[in-house]
Amino acid sequence: MKRILPYLTIILMMTACGDRTPVIDLEPDNSTRYKENMINANRVVIQSEATQIEGYVKRRGLETKALPCGALYHEYAHGSGEAINPDDTVVVTYRLEALDGTPFYTQQTDTLTVGRRQVTVALDDLLQQLPCGSKAWLIAPSNTAYGVAGDGDRVPSRTVIIYNIVSINKIHFNKS
User: Three-class SS of residue 25?
Assistant: First the structure.
């Protein structure tokens, strides 16, 4: 037994040094299944958010309109100002919260050029629907808001957000 032990030790050391973790290449079939699984997972998230939004709208008795991006809005005060068009510069003041009422920003003011999607797709689409002076609630699913990443500050990833738009004013520049 004493004679075999050194040989076994050497054999074990040699085989242990030569082991490498096998690399498995994804075959096209596996890659396709992975993509399909990701697409299905995203569909589930979108459907879940749609159900949450539907409940929110129903509980509050809101009459909403759909935006091209898929977000919904309820205009609670129609403005008497001029229409907002792409490339107009506006100052928008709003509050931002989650569907459950958790506040993210109690008052946020942004100066934006409409049509350039500087904050979120949903807010940009809404601004093109309302005249200056309007007030509205914007219900934005995560894919039209801050998406998977969140806003990098207070809004978490994949969060349906509610904008409470409290003022919209167009900025006119002197062309002198």
Answer: coil
Q: What pTM, to 2 d.p., does this model score? A: 0.78
- Compute the distance between CA of residue 76 and CA of residue 66 in angstroms, rounded to an integer: 15
Q: How far apart are CA 126 and CA 156, in angstroms?
A: 22
Please name which of 167, 164, 169, 163 lies closest in space to residue 90, comparing C-alpha atoms: 169
Fold adopted by 64-171: Chitinase A; domain 3 (3.10.50)
- CA–CA separation, 163 and 98 (whole Å): 9
Burial of 174 (0-12, 13-18, 19+ CB in 10 A): exposed
Residue 154 dihedral angles phi and psi, to the nearest 5°: -110, -25
Q: What is the pLDDT of residues 102-152, one digit of tens each?
A: 999 999 999 999 999 888 999 999 999 999 999 999 999 999 999 989 999
Burial string for 18-54 (b: 16+ CB within 10 Å, else e) reads eeeeeeeeeeeeeeeeeeeeeeeeeeeeeeebeeebe
Domain residue spans of the chain? 64-171
